[in-house]
Write a structure and sequence with these properties.
Blueprint lengths: L5 H23 L14 H6 L14
Bound molecules: zinc ion (ZN).
């Protein structure tokens, strides 16, 4: 029996999918770049949120 509710499983899967996408961006060399405008994302922001995929001007759209 799982202790997880369907909602927490969905949230966990969502986070793991974000990790997958971050690793893929790392592989193809676009990890530090905003997905919208390709502006480099600062180290400070990536340290706070390593899954950040967009610059501050473009809050998460994905
Ligand atoms: Zn941007």
């Amino acid at each position: 029996m799982s202790e997880f509710t369907n909602e927490s499983v969905a949230a966990i899967e969502n986070t793991l999918n974000e990790v997958d996408r971050a690793l893929e961006r790392l592989r193809v060399g676009t990890y530090r770049l905003c997905q919208v405008c390709a502006t480099p994302i600062s180290d400070a922001e990536l340290i706070v949120n390593p899954l950040l995929a967009n610059c501050p001007a473009h809050p998460e759209l994905s």
